[in-house]
Design a protein that fits this description.
Layout (H helix, E strand, L loop, with lengths): L1 H12 L2 H11 L6 H8 L16 H26 L3 H9 L4 H12 L1 H16 L3 H6 L11 H11 L3 H27 L6
């Protein structure tokens, strides 16, 4: 059990740039692992330029971000699940509640704080994605994978338009604050204290 916990957490420890390079190589059309698997099972027609296709590039970067962040969020859920009092769950079982009823009426409300934390963190982390975009796609193909933070970097540092980059940063700050306030107001209503 501890091995699997550690295995899920290992991608969190890898830096964003290194994980971007690893997945960029895996997505490579000629020698990447994903296309090699398709070729080895006789599905060569399914091979793609995963990062060069405008319809798939953002999804493929999203896969990398999910792979990298899943362990972090799982630790928070695990800690929340372990804090659910067993005596309350056992009392509900003695009263005849089914496992689904116990989960719905006891476990889910008691771990809703973890949902709030994880959704807030994933919202903020999703809005500030930079390293994987920079390494894997450089904002392309076209502008399909360009995020607000990548735009801030591109105009502020590469193009030398620091004023515009600062404005983008301030807009990003307000977007995060507004979305976080809305999300907190919706999710805080669901939280239960024991």
């Amino acid at each position: 059990l501890n091995f699997f916990r550690s295995a899920f957490y290992v991608p969190v420890l890898i830096s964003g740039i290194v994980s971007g390079f690893i997945w960029k190589i895996m997505y490579n059309y000629n020698f990447g692992a994903i296309n090699s698997i398709f070729r080895s099972i006789g599905m060569g027609e399914a091979c793609q330029d995963w990062l060069g296709n405008p319809k798939l590039a953002l999804i493929m970067v999203g896969v990398v971000l999910i792979w990298k962040g899943a362990g972090y969020y799982m630790i928070i859920y695990l800690a929340s699940l372990q804090s659910v009092p067993t005596d309350v769950v056992e009392a509900a079982a003695i009263d005849g509640a089914s496992p689904i009823q116990r989960f719905k009426a006891i476990t889910l409300p008691l771990i809703s704080g973890a949902f709030t934390i994880n959704l807030t963190l994933s919202l903020i982390n999703g809005l500030k994605v930079f390293d994987q975009i920079s390494v894997m796609t450089d904002g392309g193909p076209g502008f399909t994978t360009e995020t607000i933070v990548y735009l801030l970097y591109k105009v502020g540092f590469n193009e030398g338009r620091q004023g515009f980059g600062t404005a983008v940063g301030i807009v990003l700050l307000f977007i995060i604050l507004i979305l976080n306030a809305v999300q907190q107001s919706i999710l805080k209503r669901r939280e239960v204290q024991l």
